[in-house]
Amino acid sequence: MTIRKFKKSDTTELSKLMIDTVLESNIKDYTKEAVNHLCEEYTSEKILIDSKKMSIFLAVEESKLLGTIALDDDLILRMFVLPKYQGKKIGKKLVHHIEDIARKRAIEKLKLRASITAYGFYKKHGYKKIKETDIKGIGKIIWMEKDLSI
Ligand SMILES: CC(C)(COP(=O)(O)OP(=O)(O)OC[C@H]1O[C@@H](n2cnc3c(N)ncnc32)[C@H](O)[C@@H]1OP(=O)(O)O)[C@@H](O)C(=O)NCCC(=O)NCCS
């Protein structure tokens, strides 16, 4: 498994990866309405727009996309690992990759908004809960951050 940067030609497969993961993994913690709302954020059109402002990385094996993570300034976004490949340390490698990049960019503190689904994962990787909020149409999310200088 390698981690590489997103290319325009990945758009359709990346959209499918995020939507399939939301529909199978996040549905356990969120309502159908919330999940549908999230899927609307992960269309090919939106990914192409987002890719111009954030750095998107992909976990790839034999040219198949298995996972993704993005960094927008000091904010981690959109970490997804295909359900079939979860539990194989792909998420861990993606988070370490983004932390290395953040350090190279002299970012001292990384922030994120965790799903209920991913909260335990981020906690395990040193992210601390700042607050919880209810986002209209989605539900509970947990704001977390990690000081990279420690
Ligand atoms: C969260 C997610 C990215 C984790 O990816 P993953 O590849 O399955 O995780 P890993 O295999 O790298 O796990 C690394 C470690 O974290 C632990 N872990 C993983 N998910 C966990 C969770 N939800 N709660 C607690 N610990 C968790 C693993 O047990 C493993 O521990 P170990 O190193 O002691 O064995 C993945 O489950 C996912 O895509 N979830 C749905 C989408 C989502 O909610 N994304 C986040 C949006 S904010």
Account of the 3D structure:
By secondary structure, the chain is of the alpha+beta class. It has one domain (2-107): 3-Layer(aba) Sandwich (Aminopeptidase). It has helices at residues 11-24, 32-40, 44-50, 90-104, 116-124; strands at residues 2-5, 55-61, 64-72, 75-81, 109-114, 128-135, 139-147. Strands 1-2-3-4-5-7-6 form a seven-stranded mixed sheet. A hairpin with a 2-residue loop joins strand 3 and strand 4. It is globular. The chain starts with a strand and ends with a strand. The model has no long low-confidence stretch (mean pLDDT 97). Coenzyme A binds at residues 21, 25-26, 79-81, 86-92, 114-115, 117-118, 120-121, 124.
Features:
single chain, 150 residues, alpha+beta, Aminopeptidase, 7 strands, 36% helix, globular, binds coenzyme A
Rg, Å, rounded? 15 Å
Global structural class:
alpha+beta
CATH class assignment = Alpha Beta
Spatial strand sequence of the major β-sheet? 1-2-3-4-5-7-6
Q: How many helices in DSSP terms?
A: 5
The CA-CA distance between the termini, in Å, is 29 Å
Reported CATH architecture? 3-Layer(aba) Sandwich
Helix percent reads 25-40%
Q: How many domain regions?
A: 1
Output the CATH homologous superfamily: Gcn5-related N-acetyltransferase (GNAT)
Average pLDDT works out at 97
Please mark out the parts with pLDDT under 50 across 5 or more consecutive residues, or reply none. none
Order of helices and strands: EHHHEEEHEHEE
Sheet with the most strands, sense and barrel status: 7 strands, mixed
